[in-house]
């Protein structure tokens, strides 16, 4: 339609110019020449500095560099292509079709999801800005939150590289109604180019307010990372004043029942042992809780309480130099199991999880609390077995040498023990 309109306008302009030339006197010819000069000048000036910069780019990296230069964004400040709450995605093509928009948005949602559920310090972007050589889009992340929530773990392959997003995610985005509500700005049109710049400035301006709007959740999956970030900010102010209490207890109290720091920077902690007040840096404290949402869901709160003892023990044993499996590896391993079997089946007890060489239970540290009652933990050492019984009281823990012991005899032994207990109860 835009091309057809341009053809009509060009035809009308040519017709008018020919009519004027056919009836012109010498004076009129001079005026017509001046009009032609003005028309040529206006056409050359019609391309904005932004459009001219983008047109010269030969690839996506060129579009990125030229866009930042033309808009005055310093590349070093756009960490991971996120600047002032706006996540940028660049493509080398000229136009943004619906299919290309779905692909660009899918790429952006990989980054959004990582920031929301895995990273601790980066704020969640509120907008996504897609830029090609002649067109651009600006959309709200929250409008597409259903596509990157935790419940999409089984629907989409989030292990892929963002530049090669899951085809199912792209397909679903392409089928969504909200995708077709996104406005595409034609940068060759002066009015639309100005409108895009204004919209982008407005998006950055909103995010440049004191704190971001959408907060990150604290879940059973990211609890450890969020705790480490919290501890890096406030451990210094609590060490030496908390006695035998674990630092993790303060974090849990803060996450479940915390309040806003007052003007003097005093924070009240409602611990199991009673109420305590400590002085923490006011800005850092308020900023942290502007990024994260406190835990209100009782199920999540119960799961976090179960993990708090393990968190302190894990930190202590790691500092003592014990062999340590990073939580990210354990989480990834369990994620693959959950993807194959299904979360509901694992948490209902339909399946059992058995770590046959658990050691001190590092792999079980990241298991959801609902799965622990259906988890068998065995280790060769009695000391490790006693430790795991204390840290994982809801799991079945026992000593077992998986290289030399016969698994069939193990189950037969446990079967006889159950029969013996049942008979004693009957008597």
Describe the global form. Answer: globular
Major sheet: size, sense and barrel closure?
Answer: 5 strands, mixed
Mean pLDDT across residues: 78
End-to-end span in angstroms? 89 Å
SSE order: HHHHEEHEEHEHEHHEEHEHHHEEHEH
| Unreliable parts | 1-45, 207-212
What is the percentage of strand-forming residues? 5-15%
Protein architecture, described:
By secondary structure, the protein is an alpha/beta fold. The protein is built from 15 helices and twelve strands. It has helices at 2-22, 26-46, 49-55, 60-71, 98-117, 167-175, 190-207, 223-238, 247-257, 282-291, 298-319, 327-341, 343-348, 382-391, 407-426; strands spanning 82-83, 86-90, 127-131, 135-140, 184-186, 216-217, 266-271, 274-279, 292-293, 353-355, 375-379, 396-399. The chain has a five-stranded mixed sheet with strand order 1-2-3-4-5, with helices on both faces. The longest helix has 22 residues, at 298-319.
List keywords for this structure.
alpha/beta, disordered N terminus, single chain, three-stranded parallel sheet, globular, five-stranded mixed sheet, 51% helix, 427 residues, 15 helices
Offer a concise description of the structure.
The chain is of the alpha/beta class and 427 residues long.
